[in-house]
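Hello Y.,

Per our agreement to keep a running log of every chain we model this quarter, I'm adding this entry. I've kept the format consistent with earlier entries: sequence first, then predicted structure.
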Amino acid sequence: MKKQLVLGAEAIAMGALDEGISGVFAYPGTPSTEITEYIQNDAYAQKAKIHSRWSVNEKTAFESALGMSYAGKRSMVCMKHVGLNVAADAFMNSSITGIHGGLVLVVADDPSMHSSQNEQDSRVYGKFSFLPLFEPSNQQEAYNCVRDAFKLSEEVKLPVIVRITTRLAHSRAIVERMEAVAQNELNPETDKKKWILLPAIARNSYAALLEMQKDLVNYSEASPYNRLVEGSGTKGVIAFGLAFNYVMETLREYDLDIPVLKISQYPLPEKMIKEFFNKYDSILVAEEGYPVYEELLRGYLDNPKIAGRLDNALPRKGELTPDAIAEALGVKEATGEQQDAFSVPGRPPRLCDGCGHRDLYEALNKTLLNYSQQHVFSDIGCYTLGALPPFNAINTCVNMGASITMAVGAAQAGLNPAVAVIGDSTFTHSGITGLLDAVNFGLPITVIISDNDTTAMTGGQDSSGSGSLYDICVGVGVSKDHIKTIVPLKRNLEENIHVLKEEMDYNGVSVILASRECVQTLKRNRRRSKNA
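Predicted structure for the entry above:
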């Protein structure tokens, strides 16, 4: 079969296409974005009319995938780790409804927070939901795991999780594609009761889910992704997912003959682990992310045989490395904090030259000089960089949509002016409901939607609200007289300051649409026009 050098994210996309998906549903977020982009650009996917448009947010993405599953077809939903928090309501309940056509959730975690607010571990959601989970250790496994996840999903009638991390998503390796299968035929669910989560039905479904755990453990015991690498001595290593690579690299580098139990499918294969555990005097537990399974293996009595992240044998935070493994195995002296091989001057992130956010923040900062209170609630996007010099323009950035709702709370507390800055894509993702609260409460807040007509931070994907932001705000209930549009350019500075101040002085909800196309998107569109 065909071999290709691809990113881990692309390997997942290829696995889904070859396993006959009818749709991928996602919201862009590093390091998961490339999965959907690969499918969007794939010639077969376009010919087969596989759905691949971006969803408004992760919750709508998961619900849409669940609807496609209800119709009998295979669907995949993709997001980064914090996106699963947004989708959690639908996701958790899907473990009770079950599925019809195969449904696979791919969630990409970001240890060390390369481009994220936290480094939460999505395997916790696997335990939380009682759903099976695959954690591939390399690109070929990523491809294979997705295909096997769809098969398992339809066999056990449950959603299946595939968890990857940044290093796997954004590194390349050779992947061999296997024979593809056709899409499922349209075959809607006929069991109405299964999908209606009234308490009387849900209780029975939940009991069945708990009873099924024995079978899911048996699947893990027989899984080709869980295997023993033979070795000698009294010390063993249990390595989960990507951590297996770091362990094997360390063993090769230091010529160590240590047995390794690799685990990449959950729930935990209890029999396999017990047999391995009883053979050795000490066990190092290596996992990328939280000590999720180390906690289970240790138990409440803190088994002295086990070393890992909880006792600082391995770093408690950040990404795992072969050096950290070597130190934990006692073959390399601890060096403390990792140092760069040579000194490189720091280069903090910055807004692009020509970015409209720059001119917006200049106008906003000068407007706020008129007020004793100068607090700005911001959000997730390129404009978050307004927190850095030379602007130092924002005070908060917590999660998607929090800018507006935090401004609502601050206004309730008496803060005036209460100003929120949010991007066009983030506004449609999770800002609309906060604006509705502000309207319903009749609060004096000013919401600035920095509209660059794209989802810029993740590479310029389509923005759901493009061309519709004014109508959305009117529909939510904002007065038409207090929905203003400005163009953030230097030549418009004084005019923009006037508009901003006028709306900040208004004793009610006002929205300012700061509209100017992303400079990077503009450049790309011009290049495409020239090449057309």
